[in-house]
Amino acid sequence: LKYKVNTPNMAEKKIYSRQYRIPVVGGPAVEITGGESKKKKKDISPDGKTLVYQSVKHLSQGNKLFSGNILTKIIGSNNQPIELAKNSGLPKWSPDGKSLSAAVEQIQDNKKSSQVAILSAENGEQNIITNEDWNWTGQTIWLEDGKGIIVPVFRENSPTLNDELWFISNSDGK
Q1: Which terminus of the chain has a smaller tally of CB atoms within 10 A, N or C?
Q2: pLDDT value of position 36
Q3: Does the predicted model carry a pTM greater than 0.90?
Q4: Judging by beta carbons within 10 Å of its beta carbon (0-12, 13-18, 19+), is residue 99 exposed, middle or buried?
């Protein structure tokens, strides 16, 4: 189980966050992140050993925090984080912990779009699994069996003014 504690500092106009992991069967809480952080959109691997996050260079970007780098770090280790991808965001572990889904920016024929990619947790090898005209993609959610992903998206020519939920088949589970 993980939980986050936010502490506002009104004088500095900042929010300090600390994230903890607690064993469901009991035991002490272990802090996995702390203080003012450029680590956004954190997720813990299914085995509870590795943290993935989106690193943002300039926190002053406000709502434009999409673009960053995706990094992993062994929880409790002093080792440097491993960079898996650039110009990506919103990482989410697959149920088996072997890969991650993420939103990636793609430029093709001078047109920018947002797509969904699968990244290898081992080496960051990227496989873009969509080819749509999305202006924005939100946080992906894996089906429990790993054979599909649900993602909120927004298209410029959308028939609605709201985000749409899309299902992306991932039948081979990779």
Answers
A1: N
A2: 41
A3: no
A4: buried
